[in-house]
Automatic annotation (TrEMBL):
ABC transporter domain residues: 3-233
Protein name per its UniProtKB record: ABC transporter ATP-binding protein
InterPro entries, sorted: AAA+_ATPase, ABC_branched_ATPase_LivF/BraG, ABC_transporter-like_ATP-bd, ABC_transporter-like_CS, BCAA_Transport_ATP-bd_LivF, P-loop_NTPase
Family: Belongs to the ABC transporter superfamily.
PANTHER family named among the record's database cross-references: HIGH-AFFINITY BRANCHED-CHAIN AMINO ACID TRANSPORT ATP-BINDING PROTEIN LIVF
Molecular function GO terms recorded: ATP binding; ATP hydrolysis activity; branched-chain amino acid transmembrane transporter activity
Low complexity bias: start-end ranges: 237-251
Keyword Nucleotide-binding annotated: yes
High-level lineage: Bacteria, Bacillati, Actinomycetota, Actinomycetes, Streptosporangiales
Length: 277
């Protein structure tokens, strides 16, 4: 395993935010942590990157116990993070922001820069624009691009789709898949569970500081409990998608999931030439 999170406990003052999280990420995987607000997803990522310290438990990365390693050394060790809320430098240009991501490395970073521009053509077009004047989606791309500049072995992403227009959400998930395809392992935190599970290999479900479920992501997409709690209801009974007016979900509904056509689904439309045995 590239990253092993071993029974970690983390506190904010007296409040226990993580009450024994155990999770792992293998080389080459996309692993996602899903869960409601306050479940402990951000805290888990911050603890892996060294921004929060442990009360108990340990973290092993690339065969080394990094539990007590300071954050800047973890970046050098290969842990890259695009933080929640982006955290780019508003008064620096796009290119300067990207180069900041490589500051800890001594060697030339023109190759990484070219790669960041290839992944995010938008950033290439806006090289000299101040980071603070980029749109939300562009700033998110910039934050991810900057994290990649350090050539991380694992990239930690905290809610990359947050606040983005639907079209950009799709784009960000596609780019995350591409980053992974090019060899970077990804630990992805998302409230957008549906899309996170669609691109992830494995997933952990967090509830109030604990892991309550873990499975291959595709399995969780079909899990009734997970569907009910995190995927907007699941089966087409009762709970309508937010914003959808009752009875209008047949067409135009945003959740037309193509993978729910079970072969034994009830014939609710009447026979159309079927049943010709
Ligand atoms: N800076 C903080 N001070 C006090 N409590 C915090 C702080 N940050 C997070 N918490 C608490 O820790 C728990 C986990 O939060 P967080 O990791 O941000 O969850 P998530 O990212 O899943 O929404 C929550 O109960 C939250 O209120
Ligand atoms: Mg969070």
């Amino acid at each position: 395993m590239l990253l092993e999170i071993r029974d970690i406990h983390v506190h904010y003052g007296k409040i226990a935010a993580l009450k024994g999280i155990t999770a792992s990420v293998d080389q080459g995987e996309i692993v996602t942590l899903i869960g409601a607000n306050g479940a402990g997803k951000t805290t888990t990522l911050k603890t892996v990157s060294g921004l929060r310290s442990l009360s108990a438990g340990g973290i092993v990365f690339d065969g080394r116990d990094i539990s007590k390693m300071p954050g800047h050394k973890r970046v050098l060790a290969g842990i890259g993070q695009a933080p929640e809320g982006r955290g780019i430098f508003p008064g620096m240009t796009v290119e300067e922001n990207l180069l900041m991501g490589a500051y800890a490395r001594k060697d030339d970073s023109s190759k990484e820069l070219a790669e960041a521009y290839e992944l995010f053509p938008r950033l290439a077009e806006r090289k000299s624009q101040m980071g603070g004047t980029m749109s939300g989606g562009e700033q998110q791309m910039l934050a991810i691009g900057r994290a990649l500049m350090a050539r991380p072995k694992v990239l930690l992403l905290d809610e990359p789709s947050m606040g983005l227009a639907p079209m950009l959400v799709q784009q960000i998930f596609t780019i995350i898949q591409e980053i992974n395809r090019r060899g970077t392992t990804v630990l992805l935190v998302e409230q957008n569970a549906q899309q996170a599970l669609q691109i992830a290999h494995r997933a952990y479900v967090l509830e109030t500081g604990r892991v309550v479920k873990t499975a291959p992501a595709a399995e969780l997409l079909d899990d009734p409990e997970v569907r009910a709690a995190y995927l907007g209801g699941g089966a087409a009974q009762g709970t309508a998608a937010p914003g959808a007016s009752p009875g209008a979900s047949r067409d135009g509904g945003p959740e037309a999931a193509p993978d729910t056509t079970a072969s034994d689904s009830g014939p609710e439309r009447g026979p159309e030439g079927g049943a010709s045995k």
